Amino acid sequence: MDSRVARLRRKLAQIPFQPLRSHSFGEERHTFQLGPWLTRAKVTAFEAEHSIELPHSYRQFLTAVGASGAAPFYGLIPLEDCRLFTMDLRQASEAPRGFTRAHHGEQDRDLFLHIIEMGCTDLCLIAVTGPLTGRVLTGNADGFWGPNVSSARDFLDWYERWLDHMGDGRDNRALELTSPRLAATAPWGPRVTVPPSSTCSSVDITDEGRVGSEVFDE
C-alpha cells in the first residue's frame, strides 16, 4: 500500500471540526469525517459498469481511506453517484470550454469523473482517460470559466495538499490547485508558481487561460 495512505489518515484525524470557521468552506457538510471505504469488488464493479479504470491513486483512497465525506469544497461524492463527463469541443469564439455528461460507454473522447461537490454548475473532476489521466481539475459545466488542472501529480498528493492547508488554517481558495503551465488564472485568484518539475510538459496554455491545443483540441 502507498505510504501516503497512513499519513493522510493521521493528518485528517488532527483536523477538528469547528463550525463556521471561515477558512474551511464547505466543512459543515462533511465535518471533516470520511465515510467507510469501499471493497475492491465494489470499485471493480463500478469500473466494469462504466468501462473505465479508475486512476490508481484515487482507487487506493476509496479502498483504504474513505469513499465519501471530508475533502475540499462540499466533499467527496460517493462513487455510485459520480458521473462521467467529456470536455466540450473548442468553439470558434474561443470561449471557455465547459463539460457535458458522457454517454454510457463513450470511449472516443477523454473522460473525466466528477468526484468532488463544488456546488451550482462548478465541477471538480479526475481525468480517467487521455493525457491527463490521474490529474485533478476544476471547471464549470456551462463554460463560465475554463478548466484548471492541478499541479499535484495524483489524487493522494492533491488531497494531502488540502489537509496541509486546513492544518495551517488556510482556505480552500488558497489551495494553489493550478499549475502555471496548465492554466493562466484560477477563479479564486492569480495563478501560482510551482517548479517546472511539477507541471505536465505535454500541456500548453495561452495567456488568457484557455486550454491549449496539445491536449484538448478534438
Order of SSEs, N→C? HHHHEEEEEEHEEH
Our estimate of the beta-strand percent is 5-15%
- Mean pLDDT metric: 77
* Main sheet summary: 6 strands, antiparallel
Q: Give the class from helix and strand content and strand pairing.
A: alpha+beta
- The separation of the N and C termini measures 37 Å
Instruction: Please report the number of helical segments.
Output: 6
Strand order of the largest sheet: 2-1-3-4-5-6
State the low-pLDDT regions, or none. 178-218
Report helical residue fraction. Answer: 10-25%
Shape: globular
**How many beta-strand runs?**
8
Oligomer: single chain
Radius of gyration: 17 Å
Structural summary, described in words:
The chain is α+β, with helices and mostly antiparallel strands and 218 residues long. The protein contains six helices and eight strands; from the N terminus they run ααααββββββαββα. Helix 1 (4-13) packs parallel to helix 5 (155-167). The model is unreliable at 178-218 (pLDDT under 50).
Helix and strand topology:
Blueprint: H1 4-13, H2 27-30, H3 40-50, H4 56-64, E1 84-87, E2 99-101, E3 112-117, E4 122-127, E5 136-140, E6 148-149, H5 155-167, E7 185-186, E8 189-190, H6 213-216
Antiparallel strand pairs: 1-2, 1-3, 3-4, 4-5, 5-6, 7-8
Quick summary of this structure?
With 218 residues, the chain is α+β, with helices and mostly antiparallel strands. The chain has helices at 4-13, 27-30, 40-50, 56-64, 155-167, 213-216, and strands spanning 84-87, 99-101, 112-117, 122-127, 136-140, 148-149, 185-186, 189-190.
